[in-house]
């Protein structure tokens, strides 16, 4: 464990901006697994767990269900090493998700991506307007 910044459950929660209970809930569901457990039973999480937790929070914020988020984590674990490095040698056999569920997940992700693409101009326009508003610049019309 030397050299790797391991986090306790509370530290992982604080680093991700969530509650300790959220981390424990995701661990209970098998979405997060500790990288190590101390002799006293304390779970220790490595840097990749923080990335997975942030990904889970983002996926949930995008509207994915827990089951869809679980599939995304499962897919990531199948295609990446425990430290988060992409595995170029992974095969379909490494992914324990049915083709039907993968197709449903792909359709869901495409729907979400399309919605964000449709809103990209609006988001940029609102950001420009708010930036001008709060930096003292002249406010431009939201139509432009």
UniProtKB/TrEMBL annotation:
* InterPro entries for this protein: DNA-bd_dom_put_sf, MerR-type_HTH_dom, MerR_fam
- Give the source's domain of life in one word: Bacteria
* Pfam families reported for this sequence: MerR_1
Query: Keyword annotations for this protein?
Result: DNA-binding
Any one GO molecular function term: DNA-binding transcription factor activity
Which Gene3D superfamilies has this protein been placed in?
1.10.1660.10
Report the SMART domains cross-referenced here: HTH_MERR
Record domain HTH merR-type: where: 6-75
What is the protein name stated in its UniProt record? MerR family transcriptional regulator
Q: What is the native source organism of this protein?
A: Deinococcus arboris
Write the lineage as a comma-separated list.
Bacteria, Thermotogati, Deinococcota, Deinococci, Deinococcales
């Amino acid at each position: 464990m030397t050299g790797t910044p391991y986090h306790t459950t509370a530290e992982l929660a604080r680093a991700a901006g969530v509650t300790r209970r959220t981390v424990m809930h995701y661990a209970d569901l098998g979405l997060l697994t500790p990288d190590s457990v101390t002799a006293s039973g304390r779970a220790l999480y490595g840097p990749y767990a923080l990335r997975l937790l942030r990904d889970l929070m983002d996926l949930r914020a995008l509207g994915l269900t827990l089951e869809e988020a679980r599939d995304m984590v499962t897919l990531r674990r199948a295609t990446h090493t425990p430290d988060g490095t992409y595995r170029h040698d992974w095969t379909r056999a490494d992914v324990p998700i049915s083709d039907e569920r993968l197709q449903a997940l792909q359709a869901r992700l495409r729907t979400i991506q399309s919605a964000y693409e449709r809103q990209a101009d609006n988001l940029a326009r609102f950001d420009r307007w708010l930036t001008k508003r709060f930096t003292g610049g002249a406010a431009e019309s939201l139509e432009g």
